[in-house]
Amino acid sequence: MFLFAEKPLPQGAPGGFIGILGIIVAAGLIIGVAVTVFVVYRRQQKTHTETDNDMCHWPPDCIDMLCGR
Questions:
Q1: Of 29, 6, 25, 9, which is closest to residue 17 (Cα–Cα)?
Q2: Residue 63 neighbours by CB under 8 Å, 6+ apart
Q3: Does the N terminus or the C terminus of the chain have fewer Cβ atoms within 10 A?
Q4: 2 within a domain of the structure (yes/no)
Q5: What's the total number of domains in the chain?
Q6: Which domain holds residue 61?
């Protein structure tokens, strides 16, 4: 019935070098973005904490002495 026999397409080895390299690059990008978001978040938190502490002009040693620590 068919004039040409259907041949399966040639396939390379699963998980070849290009596939493994792609996975490594993708994982590196994901980890890089996660670390960047974490660092930016921590920096913003630190900035808020320093701003809150700047409202008090007492040195930490004096505060400890006044609080009986």
A1: 25
A2: 56
A3: N
A4: no
A5: 1
A6: 27-67
Q: Torsions phi, psi of 44, nearest 5?
A: -65, -40
φ and ψ of 15, to 5 deg: 70, 40
Amino acid (1-letter code) at residue 5: A
9-58: per-residue pLDDT in tens?
766 666 688 888 999 999 999 999 999 999 999 888 876 655 555 555 66
**HSE-up (13 A, CA, CB side) for residue 1:** 1
Pull the structure tokens for residue 51.
């701003």
Query: Can you tell me the distance from the alpha carbon of 66 to that of 30, in angstroms, rounded to the nearest whole number?
Result: 48
Token reading at 23: 């996975």
Q: What is the pTM of this model?
A: 0.49
25: exposed, middle or buried (C-beta count within 10 Å: 0-12, 13-18, 19+)?
A: exposed
Copy the structure tokens of residue 16. 């070849």
